[in-house]
């Protein structure tokens, strides 16, 4: 299928979705889609496996939440504050981490992200500690559109997600993106060609952090609160899982992976109740309590049968080795 046709169908589905589903849940889903795409820019096209992206996702949520609730900034500036905060954090973490490669790079990002987590735990009123930051207002878009309307909020988040995805596509297909791919494929060769590899890797890290921050800032607007869950290492693991299940290094893979994982986390219990009603088997009522096990089984199946992720395997089967 032509990529443009696929994107058009996906956009049409996204535009119709709030009229058949719950807009707040769908907006939250879009936030995680953007988070996974941002992470994929780093690991899928640059080859850098970060275990600390939760720091940017949750850290931006705290900054945006304070900007909207405490500082009284307009919605647009609140989100921008979160993005800038995540980019600066990415600059610091990336500057320290890119000097190492492989597992050492990953462990440094994990260690730094855990420092952010414990900082958030003890930061007092800024983060709310274990209670989190509550009651974040949505405000009005450009002072006109009231985002307390769930449908209006959904379309605002959809516009952000579409623009961010278009930016990622542009980055991947730009000369800068080609250098990132060259670094991923063979870093010594990129160095021998005269590229300042560390500079490119740092820029990719900051871009990925800023986009992850955009996802986190938007999420706090959708949910109206920010908690420690978003800066915990398990959130970094979750976005890795989304990317691997969907297809690392493909543009559509993280979207599919995020949809699968978030739908399972939030809807598995409802599906179990439905199956109990249809089949009369009471066991299905308990399936919602085993969501972690179900996600783990899906991950095992993907590793065994879809080692390139679902989209990656589909592209390979169609004989197209280029990323979707």
Short recap of the structure:
The chain has helices at 3-16, 23-43, 54-69, 75-97, 102-121, 150-172, 175-185, 187-192, 197-223, 233-246, 253-279, 291-305, 309-317, and strands at residues 140-141, 145-146. By secondary structure, it is an all-alpha fold. Helix 2 packs parallel to helix 6, helix 3 (54-69) packs across helix 9 (197-223) and helix 6 packs antiparallel against helix 9 (197-223).
Structural features, described:
- The protein is an all-alpha fold and 324 residues long.
- The protein contains 13 helices and two strands; from the N terminus they run H-H-H-H-H-E-E-H-H-H-H-H-H-H-H.
- The protein is 70% helix and 1% strand.
- A two-stranded antiparallel sheet has the order 1-2.
- Strand 1 and strand 2 (145-146) form a beta hairpin.
- Helix 2 (23-43) crosses helix 10 (233-246), helix 6 packs antiparallel against helix 9 and helix 10 crosses helix 11 (253-279).
- The chain is globular.
């Amino acid at each position: 299928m032509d990529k443009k046709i696929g994107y058009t169908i996906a956009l049409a589905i996204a535009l119709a979705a709030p009229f058949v589903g719950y807009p707040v849940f769908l907006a939250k889903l879009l936030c995680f889609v953007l988070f996974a795409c941002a992470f994929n820019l780093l690991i899928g096209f640059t080859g850098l496996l970060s275990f600390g992206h939760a720091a940017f996702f949750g850290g931006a949520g705290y900054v945006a939440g304070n900007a909207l609730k405490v500082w009284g900034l307009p919605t647009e500036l609140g989100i921008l504050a979160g993005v800038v905060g995540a980019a600066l954090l990415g600059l610091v973490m990336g500057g320290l981490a890119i000097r190492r490669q492989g597992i050492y790079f990953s462990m440094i990002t994990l260690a730094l992200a855990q420092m952010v987590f414990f900082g958030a735990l003890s930061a007092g009123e800024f983060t709310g500690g274990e209670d989190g930051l509550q009651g974040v207002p949505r405000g009005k878009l450009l002072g006109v559109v009231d985002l307390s309307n769930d449908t209006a909020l959904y379309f605002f988040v959809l516009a952000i997600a579409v623009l961010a995805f278009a930016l990622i596509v542009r980055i991947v297909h730009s000369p800068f993106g080609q250098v990132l791919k060259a670094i991923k494929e063979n870093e010594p060769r990129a160095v021998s060609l005269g590229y300042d590899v560390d500079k490119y890797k740092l820029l990719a890290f900051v871009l990925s952090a800023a986009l992850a921050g955009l996802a986190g800032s938007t999420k706090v607007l959708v949910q109206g609160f920010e908690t420690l869950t978003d800066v915990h290492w398990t959130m970094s693991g979750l976005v890795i899982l989304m990317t691997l299940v969907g297809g690392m290094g493909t543009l559509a893979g993280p979207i599919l992976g995020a949809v699968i994982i978030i739908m399972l986390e939030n809807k598995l219990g409802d599906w179990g109740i439905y199956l109990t009603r249809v089949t009369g088997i009471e066991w299905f009522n308990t399936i919602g309590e085993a969501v972690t096990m179900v996600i783990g089984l899906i991950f095992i199946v993907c590793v065994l049968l879809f080692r390139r992720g679902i989209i990656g395997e589909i592209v390979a089967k169609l004989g197209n080795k280029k990323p979707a």
